Model the fold of this input.
Amino acid sequence: MDDHDSKLRDREAGNLTARRASGGPVALARQPFFLGINDPVGLNPAGAQFDSHVFTIFRPWLALHGDDDVVSKAHRSITRGAEVFNTKPITIAGVGGLNNQTFSNGVFVGDPLPGTCSKCHDSPNAGNHSVKAPLDIGLTDPSVAAYLPVYTLRNIATGQTVETTDPGRAMKTGKWANRFHIGLTPQERVDLIAFLRSL
Done:
């Protein structure tokens, strides 16, 4: 099996294009994309409204019912995981670079902000952000990555300090531009992992 074939198959779900699904690299390569596509804060140059249903490649599997074989169960789990990604309400708060920012088009993003995973991972069926957006979602918090060196940064204007394991773009820009709890149930967690592994 070459690398291309392995990307078309999931260990439990099998072929990611079965039953009219469109997983795998070929469908992704054909997915329309432009900078700002499906942007949630009005940076879409086409002016289209944001659609939280970012992942639709496994939507045909939503109609599957009844079959209890391993593959059908995996298809349903992947589909439920995509729905968690697309629709599970979360409160986005304290995200440096997003909350309490006014963007160049005049859109103000408050704190907290209701959203979903797809609010930031907005490129259709790819899940990356469609515009450059250096956001602090808490992954560099020393409590998360205690094995890394910790940098203490101080805002010269306000005196505020922050500890981080990765100063990121701040080292280049000098700008002072974080975390939220999604509250997944055990089943949602299993399904979301199944979905993410299928990508």
User: Anything to note?
Assistant: The CA atoms of residues 42 and 106 lie 9 Å apart. Residues 139-177 form one domain. Strands lie at 9-10, 14-15, 90-92, 101-102, 108-109, 113-115, 151-154, 161-164. The chain has a mean pLDDT of 84.
